[in-house]
Amino acid sequence: MHHTLEVTDLHFKYPDGHEALRGVNLSIAPGEKVALVGPNGAGKSTLMLHLNGILEVQRGEVCSCGIALRKENLGKVRAEVGLVFQDPDDQLFSPTVFDDVAFGPLHMGLPEPEVRGRVRDSLAAVGMADAANRVSHHLSVGQKKRIAIATVLSMKPEILVLDEPSAGLDPRARRGLINLLRQLPQTMLVSTHDIRMVKELFPRTVIMDQGRVVADGPTVGILSNADLLEMHGLEAP
Question: In whole angstroms, what is the distance from residue 191 CA to residue 34 CA?
């Protein structure tokens, strides 16, 4: 059985010479929900931007759902791997919520009735069923985050990759988001500084630091290792 996500010896250097990834290895099995933690500058976002080809692989390999990431199959991989950015305003750019959520399926060339069905299902899945005709930039941050997730769900991805989903949310919106992520069936890799959320939601935790995976295992063990957390700038929950 192939892993849903397989990253092998991934290296990446930015044009200014900064080495952001130094041989990352990570495999995630179907249905797993995995937290990705580590200090700022550890390479978490750079890794995530590789998973659906926003950044091009320089050295190493990324496989999603058994498909190796190459220029020629980008569209296929992007349909399988849904990336939700930290700032929902990077994801929402259409006149209405409906248009934002319909954008991906329309670009896949799906017939209109199917697109409408997907928009309806995706908005319902994130608890925003009645928001289709609203203007995205009038919504609260918590609502925007939900819509951003819906824009990705409408593509029916196998894997959800979320960058700092709870950042900037008030306690109620954060709680709502945690409940939403718990209900979604997809395989999930979530980068976050919210260690309390990690403890509550993710059975497995991966720590990155200085462009490498430095720890990977059951969340319970990792979060109870105070020395490990302190060494990598993380607060115990």
Answer: 9
Beta partners for 215? 207
Neighbours of 19 (CB within 10 A): 12
43-55 burial code (b ≥16 CB/10 A, e <16): bbbbbbbbbbbeb
199 Rama sector, left if φ>0, alpha if ψ -120 to 50, beta otherwise? alpha
List, in sequence order, every residue forming a beta bridge with 218; answer none if it has no partner. Answer: 204
Residues 67, 73, 79: CA angle, nearest 5 degrees: 80
Task: Give the C-alpha distances (Å, rounded to integers) separating 33 from 50, 99, 167, 228.
Answer: 19, 29, 19, 21
pTM over 0.85: yes
Per-residue pLDDT tens digits of the chain, which is 237 residues long: 567 899 999 999 999 999 999 999 999 999 999 999 999 999 999 999 999 899 999 999 999 888 888 888 888 888 899 999 999 999 999 999 999 999 999 998 999 999 999 999 999 999 999 999 999 888 999 999 999 999 999 999 999 999 999 999 999 999 999 999 999 999 999 999 999 999 999 999 999 999 999 999 999 999 999 999 999 999 888
Residue 213: beta bridge partners?
208
Say what the alpha-carbon torsion angle 129, 130, 132, 133 is, to the nearest 10 degrees: 180
Cα–Cα distance for residue pair 64/69, rounded to 1 Å = 7
